Amino acid sequence: MTPSTDFELRRRTFLAGTASAAAVAGIAAPAQAQQDAETAAVPDSIEPAMRSNVSFTVNGQQQTLELDNRTTLLDALREHLRLTGTKKGCDHGQCGACTVIVNGQRINSCLSLAVMHEGDEVKTIEGFGTPDDLDPMQQAFVDHDGFQCGYCTPGQICSANAVLEEIAGGIPSHVTGDLTAAIEATDAEIRERMSGNICRCGAYSNILAAITQVAEDRA
Question: pTM here?
Fold first, then answer.
């Protein structure tokens, strides 16, 4: 049976319309996807980096810096003040290479924002001695060969000095047995307190000997 002329026209109209719609959809979909991607890549507004002035004392010298608020204390010391003795190791607070002393307490400078230290007193390895006049802890590390590659040594020395101050101040550690007695600088106390400083060369026994020597000299 031959379809009527009217049906054939309506069928062709339908097919043509469907094809046109598919073509438009095929063009429009990538175009929309591209537009969405551009919208995602370029937000309507990007907040400019916030900057702040921070003033602190570093190794006895007053310093004022204008910094991106996201700048760590480690980067402020190394990149802005050029005090490169403090090392960037893991950058996750796990190796201790970035240890500095802030207001008398050791911290991992990679985990602390510089803007948090307004008015603080920061001491880095450069504040402990000079090549011609070594700090006693630096001299002890030399005497006992408490380093091999030396990369972690600045953090080790900062921590070691702080460890002896903590023991002298009666601050207990995880291995302190009697909390009512004076704390002694035993091997166990020193090892426990230095456990946050990683020496990948494995010079731990020499580092322990160096710290023990200084502890005995101070006793």
Answer: 0.77
